[in-house]
């Protein structure tokens, strides 16, 4: 039985007196992503000026040309690719810490976060594999793409918990354990909109507390889905242990 309120309650308990490392992980991640965005951000004023001129003169062709020039800049393209892979690499590194926190009350160290970067290659491959399948489903229609994104949403949790599992198997298991629970996962994600809005209003400062809470809740939901799947023989222990 999927119980998001219980997962949120557990998350608050698990983070109690242990928020320092999650907050530092969130801060480090934000700083790195900001640095990766700098090549794009420094050219945004020129693009903004082009948009203003287009609005005044109704010459949107000039703005389109400026937008195309901006999109084709090598620095912008490189930043986009780096961010694409960094999302997965940092996610897996952080999940290694949250998974450890979910297993017991032992303190975690920032070193646990840095140790998680040893899975960088698997995280990058997982990102490519997941994105490919979501993209293919998006070609059919937007809704099937969203549904499949939810089906694949547990893949990085699995990658972090089972570092020897093949990438394809992780995707397959994610599909199996989310079967019948995709709507529940969607509602759980939507339930954090208010918190995410608060993070936006505070220019990301509140995210130092909000992001750990959301991620810890998602980890608890992942454990519940995995446990339910094992108990109902949707998956077997042989499938997850390598």
Brief summary:
This protein is mainly alpha-helical. 79% of the residues lie in helices and 0% in strands.
Largest sheet: none
* Helical content (DSSP H or I, runs of 4+): over 70%
| CA-based shape | globular
SSE sequence, one letter per element:
HHHHHHHHHHHHHH
Arithmetic mean pLDDT: 86
Distance between the termini: 28 Å
Which blocks of ≥5 consecutive residues have pLDDT under 50? none
Number of helices: 14
Q: Count of DSSP E strands?
A: 0
| Coarse structural class | mainly alpha
Strand content: under 5%
Radius of gyration: 20 Å
Structure, explained:
The model has no long low-confidence stretch (mean pLDDT 86). The chain is 79% helix and 0% strand. Helix 3 packs antiparallel against helix 4 and helix 5 crosses helix 13. It has 242 residues and is mainly alpha-helical. It is built from 14 helices and no strands. The radius of gyration is 20 Å and the shape is globular.
Helix and strand topology:
Elements: H1 4-15, H2 20-41, H3 44-57, H4 60-71, H5 74-103, H6 110-115, H7 120-140, H8 142-151, H9 155-161, H10 167-177, H11 182-190, H12 193-201, H13 207-231, H14 237-240
Which structural traits does this protein have?
242 residues; mainly alpha; 14 helices; 0% strand
């Amino acid at each position: 039985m999927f119980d998001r309120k219980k997962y949120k309650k557990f998350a608050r308990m698990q983070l109690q007196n242990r928020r320092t490392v999650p907050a530092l992980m969130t801060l480090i991640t934000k700083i790195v992503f900001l640095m990766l965005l700098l090549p794009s951000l420094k050219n945004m004023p020129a693009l903004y000026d082009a948009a203003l001129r287009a609005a005044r003169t109704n010459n949107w062709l000039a703005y389109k040309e400026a937008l195309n020039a901006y999109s084709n800049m090598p620095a912008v393209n490189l930043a986009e690719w780096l961010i694409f892979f960094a999302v997965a690499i940092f996610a897996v590194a952080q999940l290694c810490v949250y998974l450890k926190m979910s297993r017991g009350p032992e303190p975690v160290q920032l070193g646990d976060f840095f140790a998680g970067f040893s899975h960088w290659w698997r995280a990058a491959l997982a990102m490519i594999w997941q994105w490919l399948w979501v993209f293919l489903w998006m070609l059919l229609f937007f809704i099937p793409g969203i549904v499949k994104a939810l089906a694949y949403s547990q893949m990085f949790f699995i990658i972090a918990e089972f570092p020897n599992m093949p990438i394809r198997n992780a995707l397959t298991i994610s599909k199996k354990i989310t079967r019948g629970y995709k709507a529940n996962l969607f509602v759980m994600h939507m339930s954090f909109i208010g918190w995410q809005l608060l993070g936006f209003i505070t220019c990301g400062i509140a995210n130092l507390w909000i992001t750990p809470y959301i991620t810890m809740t998602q980890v608890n939901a992942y454990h519940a889905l995995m446990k339910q799947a094992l108990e109902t023989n949707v998956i077997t222990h042989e499938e997850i242990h390598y």
